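Minutes, project huddle
Topic: does the predicted pose make sense with nicotinamide-adenine-dinucleotide bound?
PN asked that the exact inputs be recorded in the minutes so nobody has to dig through chat later. Recorded below.
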Amino acid sequence: MRPKTICVIGLGYIGLPTASLLATKGYSVLGVDVAPSVVETINAGDIHIVEPELDILVRSAVGSGNLRASLTPEPADVFVIAVPTPFKGDHEPELAYVDSATDALCPHLSPGDLVILESTSPVGTTERVAARIAQKRPELTEADRVFVAHCPERVLPGHILRELIENDRIVGGVDGPSTDAAVRFYETFVSGEVIATNARTAEMCKLTENSYRDTNIAFANELSMLCHELGMNVWELIRLANRHPRVDILNPGAGVGGHCLAVDPWFIVHSAPDTARLIRTAREVNDGKAHWVVDRVVEKASRFRDPVVVCLGLAYKPDIDDLRESPALEIAKALTAKVDGTVLAVEPNITAYEGLEITDLHDALERADIVVALVSHREFKRVDRALLQAKVLIDACGVFR
Ligand SMILES: NC(=O)c1ccc[n+]([C@@H]2O[C@H](COP(=O)([O-])OP(=O)(O)OC[C@H]3O[C@@H](n4cnc5c(N)ncnc54)[C@H](O)[C@@H]3O)[C@@H](O)[C@H]2O)c1
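Predicted holo structure (tokens), as shared on screen:
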């Protein structure tokens, strides 16, 4: 029988679009978040995150009566956990949010319920959720059992509502019946293929996708540093190498940021530190690239008396306002501390950041001695190259290539 009631725990970039989409597909959905402001905002039919068309979807879901928000879970047929999974300390996975979400739903479980972990998680986390449920609700076994599965989320911010439906989904349960129950659930609202595996492979699949990207970007970043050392243009080199029919090198940049690529590979490294050598090195190369950019700017700045250094871009990738794990932001902060002069930042997508002097593009370029291009925002692509002629230009992202 198709489940009727869903409880989505964690109403951020993943949980809120998922909850509102399910509500518009006819499910009765309770969204749960520990932040009272989030719960109030959603119950008022508004949203607290930036995502195209999400406001319309939430307003219609709340208006239809199919979506409510609350601070605490209630009984449901399906529980979806979409809470943060950052790292702490020395890149150790922080599973406290997953644990507390699991603990919160445990009292509301009934036989036959399905619990799905959607948070990006280290291998073994879905089994950890199942074990926690078994410990707190030991009577939910055999004929009275619950089902537990992982289904990693792969949506791209800015395209979440379309990709939630159209992307293929990898679904892995802690056992066969859990996998089957989760596949049946996703097939009710996903038009992409829903592919069954086990929980560990599903967890590793998401981590693998992001480690693959991170490793390939590390190769490009290493090339950019080699080219500098050996006296050639990395953009020309990559363009030429990519003329080989089986070579496809990515673009170098100021580093790698965001809450996925810069975080998830560490989950693999933490699980198998002696074996995940390439993945760890890729992370180190990408983090090291930001320090390398800082060193180059500091060296150029030391040739000026009272230099004005302009950092173009702070976000972790072009044309967004997201600063999470952003190498550009780290570079601007480090330069503010290290350069004996003035450091200005230009970030068209935000208005202020404590400790940084953010200014308008034209004012900054007029005053600049050194221009450091960190993010290929569309506004920077339109800059008149004549304005850069008398400046020292360090183009880490290739926006002026
Ligand atoms: N944002 C993305 O593009 C994206 C893409 C793929 C996967 N993911 C993964 O999805 C997961 C969620 O990410 P997000 O971007 O939605 O995070 P987010 O920070 O936008 O939202 C998480 C929400 O969970 C709430 N929360 C924290 N602990 C809670 C608890 N115990 N109970 C109830 N609510 C709780 C927070 O208040 C917050 O509103 C992470 O594992 C992330 O890696 C995110």
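Observations noted during the meeting:
- The chain has a mean pLDDT of 96.
- The radius of gyration is 24 Å.
No decisions taken; revisit at the next huddle.
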